[in-house]
Amino acid sequence: MSTAAAPPLPAAAAAPAAAPEQRVTALELFFDLVFVFAITQVTGFLSDRPDATGLLQALALLTVLWWTWSCYAWLGNTAASDEGLFRLVLLTAMAAMLIVSIAVPGAFTDDALVFGLSYLAVRVLHLVAYLVLSRTDAGLRTATVRMALAMLPASALIALAGAVDGTARTVCWAVAIAIELSGLLAFGVAGWRVRASHFAERHGLIVIIALGESIVAIGVGAQAHELDAGVVTGALLGVAVAAAMWWLYFDVVALVAERRFARTTGIDQVRMARDSYTYLHLPMVAGIILFALGVKKTVAHVGDPLHDVPALALCGGVALYLLGHVAFRWRNLHSVNAARAVTAVLLLAAVPLATVLPGLLSLGLVAVAVWALIAYERVRYADLRNRLRHAEP
Questions:
Q1: 3-state secondary structure the chain
Q2: For the whole model, what pTM was predicted?
Q3: What is the total count of domains within the chain?
Q4: pLDDT digit string, tens, across residues 274-286
Q5: Residue 351 lies in a domain
């Protein structure tokens, strides 16, 4: 990710330490509606191309879409407002982002140029918004110019990919993603600040949005088959897994992380925002999207074994989600959640089984695994959980 994708608030533009924390605005939630559609499009893209190439392309699409959403999450954090010219810029970016989302199914074929040019427009509008915000702040203006040095080349390469094909298109995408993922680390975060509660809330909401896509996928899969006992059971098991994924994030993890985030100050707080949220929430969201594909295919064909990619998506998606949690804890607490790591490994080991067992049974095994994990943690850490959930922030 380039620094443009996640520019924290410069010290010169930061609100006073005593100022109340901002909350997510209605305009930000409105903007996120487009990202809901984008996620749905990525799931549909992979559903239509359930092979290795389709999987890699879907992950590439999710990465650039995530970085686009992330850059606007940072922008909202910086602006702390939905008024004036900033409102017009964000609404315009929302329109351009809608075109990006519509073009997702053809992003590597007929609509590649539309996707690329629309994506470039979204990123340029992000830069324009920062130029507007920095009119009276020389420090922010310098930071904006610095982040543009990484953001513009990456965005331009995605646009260029739409004008070429074959190996050249693949190379453009690969280099652009490499710039996006490495840019923030390369440029550093010195001199920036972030509003913690707003940032954590925004990322929690995006996890909810991704989980919502898994619910939609269950419904779509169920509609592809007669509503018999097998489909009903599959739908219930799918909801059970989605509910477990919600529990695993929001019961304690999100709460503890937000409190630690708010207590951290200065450059360490910005690094936590960059690492824990901008970087490590990507595998969590990716895992949820992969699970959405797996459960969609499973519910549509409950009695049949899954093909390779849907099997990997069903079991591996939940495993990736859990590994994101393991990395999240390691980054913030420097300790390993062994139970979640072991469960992730067991789910990855179950991928070959999912290609030979009936899909309904495979989904049932995933549901048992995640709820057994919850039960273990609920008993093992009962006292600690109670103190954390009922302690003063």
A1: CCHHHCCCEEHHHCCCCCCCCCCCCHHHHHHHHHHHHHHHHHHHHHHHCCCHHHHHHHHHHHHHHHHHHHHHHHHHHHHCCCCHHHHHHHHHHHHHHHHHHHCHHHCCCCCHHHHHHHHHHHHHHHHHHHHHHCCCCHHHHHHHHHHHHHHHHHHHHHHHHCCCCCHHHHHHHHHHHHHHHHHHHHHCCCCEECCHHHHHHHHHHHHHHHHHHHHHHHHHHHHCCCCCHHHHHHHHHHHHHHHHHHHHHHCCHHHHHHHHHHHCCHHHHHHHHHHHHHHCHHHHHHHHHHHHHHHHHHHHCCCCCCCHHHHHHHHHHHHHHHHHHHHHHHHHHCCCCHHHHHHHHHHHHCHHHHCCCCHHHHHHHHHHHHHHHHHHHHHHCHHHHHHHHHCCC
A2: 0.90
A3: 2
A4: 999 999 999 999 9
A5: yes
